[in-house]
Specification:
The chain has 14 helices and twelve strands. It is of the alpha/beta class. The chain has two domains: 2-159, Rossmann fold (3-Layer(aba) Sandwich); 171-339, Rossmann fold, CATH 3.40.50.2000.
Length: 361
Amino acid sequence: MKIALSGYYGFDNAGDEALLSAITSTIKKLEPAASFVVLSGYPGKTARLHGLRAVNRINPWSVSRELRSSDLLISGGGSLFQDVTGPRSLPYYISIVALALLLKKPVIFYAQGVGPINRRFSKFLMRRIANRVDMITLRDEDSVRVLQQIGVTHPPVRVTADPVFSLEPKDNDYEAMGQLLRKYCPGPGQVVGVSVRQWTALEGYQRKLAQVLDGLVREGYQVLFIPMDYPADLEESRRIVALMEEPAALIDSYLTSHQHVALISNFQLMIGMRLHALIFSASQEVLFMGISYDPKIDSFLRQFGEKPLTGDAGEMAAQVRSLLADTGMQDKIRRKARELRTRAEETAHLALALCRSRDLN
């Protein structure tokens, strides 16, 4: 059984690399005979990091050859079908799906987050192609509504969960990240992690967040910035560190997705803009708060009964203190994370069932 995977792979984004690792490891656990080929931006890097075969995702001959010899195309996870990051992203990913369908290969949208989709052409492509795939699984109800609004009515949609909830770091990842944490945060005090990214529409939040973090340091916490998209997030992290009056640490090196998860397991709190910084935290039963730059952040926070950090620095600080003082929140995160982990594994069962059913026909 050969499975092709299409996603934002090979670009050093911790969330997307975690998705690739989680999807393949979960399927492999259920079907040891499964093999994979990844459509990657940097095939050599993907092969080294994940131990998987990979081909250049923009080489039409390689992509066609691999799809032709595959038994299933997995599109996702992540937020592939959206057009807020540019006009070319959605057409690229949906074209891979269209090619697989042309080659009569089964296709599953694998626990994807869909939207926002604003351009008329993007909506047309989604209606035209998504209605022809074999199975659609999504990570949240908001994505279901986006597909309904643009006219995707077939096949029936199943809401599961982000695949990363099934990601399991190894013991040596936890050990190595414990040592790394002691290097960056050697003093006393619990650690607050911060994951930020540049986003023009939120300009001005940096100073307010810096003031909130200063307050936490004065209360005895240590602050550690983690660039989830390395090195793209370094500049924004440094900008906020420079605005702070109190000391903060910044990890200036690449970490694998497993290492990110293991590192975050040591935190008392994560304040994140990157969705997978929040998902990593929830999976490790760590308190988290989100700064929303995209509807996917709001959607994830709602699953845990949370709202994004908003308002002036005083209001944001009050939200953080309220969460830290909520003795029942960690139990709530633990229960919800276990539910989402089960649903994440369900997606792998559905993908394999689709592949096997096509083999029987």
